[in-house]
Amino acid sequence: MPGVPTLPAPTVFATPSLIAAAARSWRSARDDGRPVQAALFATLDRYRCGVLAPVFASLMALYETCAGRRIRVGRFDGAPLSNDEHILVDLLDGPADGQRMTLHAAADPGLSTAMRIALRSTRIMIGLTLEPIGRPGRAKLRSGSRP
């Protein structure tokens, strides 16, 4: 229509709080011996993206394997993001494809490859889940600098 401006496709943001909620839920379920995917689904469903539970379950387990230690998360009471949570947000947000996730992965090239694939898969699933139907756009975890 003449004279009507064309608006760019919206960009969908998955907030760092979603990533932190998933990480904290995963850690809590693992520590308590509860089913991880059920706990993740309940947490992510509050963000209307429970379907991401299997993706996050795999990503979190692989992150911990690559780090060679237990992932450290903040408390559920609104505590700031832990260093591991910041790294997860950065890994999912950036184009690095896991290049920084080389703590123990460097000793096993298969772990580095698996991490790159897990990050790409998670980004794709986040985009498909959070992107409005019929509105193409690049899913992005956040804009600007660290919270």
Summarize the structure.
By secondary structure, the chain is an all-alpha fold. It has helices at residues 16-32, 36-45, 53-67, 83-93, 109-130.
What does the model show?
It contains five helices and no strands. The chain is mainly alpha-helical and 147 residues long. Helix 1 (16-32) packs antiparallel against helix 2 and helix 2 (36-45) crosses helix 3 (53-67). It has one domain (16-130). It is globular. Helices cover 51% and strands 0% of the residues. The model is unreliable at 1-13 and 133-147 (pLDDT under 50).
Comma- or semicolon-separated keywords:
single chain; 147 residues; mainly alpha; 5 helices; 51% helix; disordered C terminus
The helix/strand order is HHHHH
Helix fraction bin: 40-55%
Q: Count the strands?
A: 0
Shape: globular
| Average pLDDT over all residues | 77
Distance between the termini: 40 Å
Number of domains: 1
Helix/strand/pairing category? mainly alpha
Biggest pleated sheet: none
**Radius of gyration over alpha carbons?**
16 Å
Summed up, the helix count is 5
Percent of sequence in beta strands: under 5%
Stretches with pLDDT under 50, minimum 5 residues: 1-13, 133-147
